[in-house]
Amino acid sequence: MASLPAMDHALMVEHLSVHEGVITKLIKYQDIVKDMELRRIITLQIDVMRSHIWIMLAFINPDYHDHFELPPLPSTKLSVSNTNEKNYENDKWIVMEAHNTAANMASENFHSALKMKQENVQKAHKEMALQQLDIKNKYNHFIERKGWDYRSNISTQERIKTYLHFQDLLNL
């Protein structure tokens, strides 16, 4: 890349440092988790983050001029097994934390893209954000299938009350 704005460079340097820590943490999680499907999602996240490192290093390298794109996420089907939950007690906190990590990475990549100046660097970071969002959703589906998710629902009456309160916004 011939020139790189200082803002883009600084944001990628920060991202690279974070990626090192997150990948190290995810590798440790791989060693602990028992459920093979959870291990596959963690491996996917590690592989995706390594591809993000490669892309950022290519942007930073002044001698690299080839066109490059983020590789797409491989499509995977979730198949959560019915297992003895007692033997898988660490899997729950690990998937909750990995889910949060993917959400934070998606948010950080998107916010960075908003600040970046170079169009192709910005585009790559938007795509990185979407990939992390997809990974977050894979964790979320895993959590739901295991029955580890709890959400309270709002009543129909409360929804109608809210709707009526805000419907005048359509007339602004």
TrEMBL record:
Q: Which InterPro entries match?
A: Ferritin-like
Name this protein carries in UniProt: Coat F domain-containing protein
Protein species of origin: Oceanobacillus limi
For this protein's source organism, the top of the classification is: Bacteria, Bacillati, Bacillota, Bacilli, Bacillales
